[in-house]
DNA sequence: ATGGACCCTGTAGCCGCTACAGGGTCAAGA
DNA sequence: TCTTGACCCTGTAGCGGCTACAGGGTCCAT
């Protein structure tokens, strides 16, 4: 199977597949005579795993660890659990953070009654944090991406 | 006021302030004889506005628009409202997405009963999306950052 | 005169892709 | 046989929003 076919089967762009290979998530496949990458079933499985994990928000390093662990079936799954639990906690924290933003934004927007910019509630609140009801995240808080 | 003092007053790193100037959020201040940036009160206000908006998750382009609008006090605040509402909706969508992740992660983790990697539920689910209860976001969905 | 705290510019790195540019390969049709 | 066009290759640069240097300059107190 060539890279385009693998991409179609896993809903992954060709460039993304090459990127995963470059960063060591997907092992380099055999090559054809014409230097095309040639994938087998195992690659479809591995890439599906990767995509699924990405869809759940795991980052590349975490996925690398998970794949390494999956390749050692005799080990205890403690570490797997630790990674998944840690990620779950990060997701929960981020939701909490976004909830704070949501509340404050809804309050700002809800108080807009039209009119001139000069008396715009949204701009007033942005200009003065003291007008905030909740203590939302400080600027620059990195959000999970 | 020099850049370090401005940073202290607004809880902003010096490099970040220079970055905001470079991308046109913060107007270039006067310079001293020794070529140091020299800020006045208006800059503190503007930077506070920027930091507050960043804290609420607005991106640089949105903040630039909001600042432009704030500089035209006679205009209707329609556009301000549109930007804020649009951002609120983006935040809500993202929360919904993270909720899906959270549910699926919690289910995965909750079913882990220890044991060997070979029979690890977390890895099984990641290897087979069909084992997911919910239809969480596909891989590669860009999350608001 | 010297040390150290601060400031300057410019550049490169982070993440997870995405999007080229500039070429090569391969199979089908004229 | 030649050509077309779909696919593939490598390498590099860009996105956002910073952050972190390197390599220098300025200023003030001792």
From TrEMBL, chains A, B:
Keywords: DNA-binding, Transcription, Transcription regulation
Record-linked InterPro entries: DNA-bd_dom_put_sf, MerR-type_HTH_dom, MerR_fam, Tscrpt_reg_MerR_DNA-bd
Domain of life, source organism: Bacteria
Ranges of residues in domain HTH merR-type: 1-69
Keyword Transcription: yes
Name of this protein: Helix-turn-helix domain-containing protein
Protein's organism: Sphingosinicella rhizophila
Lineage of producing organism: Bacteria, Pseudomonadati, Pseudomonadota, Alphaproteobacteria, Sphingomonadales
């Amino acid at each position: 199977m060539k890279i385009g076919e693998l991409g179609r089967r896993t809903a992954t762009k060709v460039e993304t597949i090459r990127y995963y290979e470059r960063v060591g998530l997907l092992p380099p496949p055999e090559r054809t005579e014409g230097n095309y990458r040639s994938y087998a079933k195992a690659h479809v499985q591995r890439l599906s795993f990767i995509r699924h994990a990405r869809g759940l928000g795991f980052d590349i390093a975490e996925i690398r660890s998970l794949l390494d662990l999956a390749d050692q079936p005799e080990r205890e799954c403690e570490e797997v659990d630790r990674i998944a639990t840690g990620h779950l906690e990060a997701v929960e924290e981020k939701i909490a953070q976004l909830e704070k933003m949501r509340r404050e934004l809804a309050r700002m927007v809800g108080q807009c009654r039209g009119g001139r910019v000069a008396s715009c509630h949204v701009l007033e609140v942005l200009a003065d944090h003291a007008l905030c009801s909740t203590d939302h995240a400080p600027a620059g808080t990195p959000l999970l991406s």
